[in-house]
Amino acid sequence: MIDYDELKDKRIAVLLSGGVDSAVVVHELATHGLTPDCFYIKIGADDNDEWDCSMEEDMEMATAVARKYGCRLEVVDCHREYWDQVTAYTMNKVRAGMTPNPDVMCNRLIKFGAFHEKRGHDYDYIATGHYAQTEILPPTPSAGNERLKWLCTSPDPVKDQTDFLAQIYGWQLEKALFPIGHYMKDEVRQIAEREHLVNARRKDSQGICFLGKINYTDYIKRYVGEQQGDVIELETGRTIGAHRGHWFYTIGQRKGLGFGGGPWFIVKKDVEANVLYVSHGYDPATAYMQHFPIHDFHSINGMMPGERITFKIRHTPEYHRATLETLGDGRYMVHSETRIHGVAPGQFCVVYDEHHHRCYGSAEITV
Fold it and tell me: What is the pTM of this model?
C-alpha cells in the first residue's frame, strides 16, 4: 500500500488518459490531500485523419476530471517518439514473423520514457491507472544492502497489468505510483459512480496503447502492407487457401482467420516463403509447447529469479508453474509443468516468484 504521508511534500504527475482508471487515480490522491498535476499524452495516428483515435473525447473527459479536483492539465506531445520507437519495434518484429507486444514497449518508451524526458523529470513520482502494486523491502545483503522496490501483482487477476510493465527499468519503477493497484476493477467503477466522475461508465479501451479505436490489423497494414501467400494444412500438405501476409497472424491463433472448413489453428510460419501452416480440429498437439528458450532477460530491479517460478506469455489471468534453467549469455530455458498453447517467438515471457506476487521482469521467447 502507498504511504501517503510520505507524499505530502512530493511533486506528483498523473498520466490522465480520459478513462475511468486514471480518473480514479486523481480522486485517490485528492482524497489524501494531494493536488497532482495532470498530463494527457498526445500520440495521434501519424497525421492520418481517417483513423479515429477518439482524442477529442479523451480530452473532454480528462479536462472535466482535472477541473473537478482543481488540478492543472497539460498536453504533452509524444507523437514522434511513439511512431519512431514503438511502431518501429512493432513493425520490425512482425516482418520477422514474431509476435510483438507494443503495449509493453509503450510503457517503457513512452509513459515512463519520453514523457519523463519532456516533463516527468520535474516530478518525484509519476502516477498511472495501472492495475499493479509496489513493495519496498528493507536493505539485505543479497540486495547489496540497498532497499529494493518490487513490482507486485494486483488482487484483480483479470485486470492485473504487471505483464505490461515487466520491461520498465528500475529507475522508472522507483518513480512509479499505482494508486488504484490494490482495487478490483468493480471497486474502481463503484468509486467513479459514487463520486459522479464523468467517465464512470465509459468502456475500457480494447485497442493498442494510445491508439484508441485503431484496429491492430489496420495498424500493421499501414506500415508493412500486404503480400499474398499460401495457407497449407500441416498434416497433409494441402493448400486450403490464401492469406494477405504472415505478419497479420500469430502462432496459436484461431479467431479471425477466415479460412473455410475450419476451425483452423496457426501452428507454424515459413517467414521467407510467406507461408502459413494450419492444423484442423480443436487444439492440435502441434500448437502446444512445454519447454522453450528465452533470451535477454530484463530484470526490473536487478534481482534474478530462482529456479522455481511462475510465468505468463500473454495477458490472461492464468499463471503457469515452471523451473528456469540457466543457459548462459542471458539465455534461459523455461520448463513448464504443463504444455502451453500458442507459444510464439517475439512474445514476452513474464517471470514471477512461485506465488506470482513479485514480478522479476521478462524476456523474449526465441522459439
Answer: 0.91
Give the C-alpha separation, 152 to 134, whole Å: 5
Q: Which residue out of 106, 152, 349, 359 is catalytically annotated?
A: 106
- For 101, 116, 135, 300, 344, the CA distances from 361, given in Å and listed in that order, are 15, 21, 15, 5, 18
Check if the beta carbon of residue 31 is closer than 8 Å to that of residue 38.
no
User: pLDDT by residue (tens digit) across 102-146?
Assistant: 999 999 999 999 999 999 999 999 999 999 999 998 776 666 667
Starting at the edge strand that comes first in sequence, how are the strands of the sheet with 264-270 ordered?
Answer: 239-243, 229-233, 275-280, 264-270
Catalytic residue, chosen from 38, 53, 78, 209, is: 209
**From the CB of residue 362, how many other CB atoms can be counted at a distance below 10 Å?**
30
Distance between CA 18 and CA 25 in Å, rounded?
11
Measuring CA to CA, which residue among 134, 118, 137 is closest to residue 77?
118
Would you state the cell numbers that stand for residue 31, as one nine-digit string? Answer: 482524497
User: Can 349 be counted among the known catalytic residues?
Assistant: no
Which residue in 283, 275, 284 sits closest to 238, CA to CA? Answer: 275
Question: Which is nearest to 352 in space by CA: 318, 319, 326?
Answer: 319
Name the pLDDT band for 43 (thresholds 50, 70, 90): confident
Residue 215 has pLDDT above 80, yes or no: no
Question: Is residue 71 annotated as a catalytic residue, yes or no?
Answer: no
How far is 17 from 25, CA to CA, in rounded Å?
Answer: 11
Helices H / strands E in the chain, number of each: 10, 17
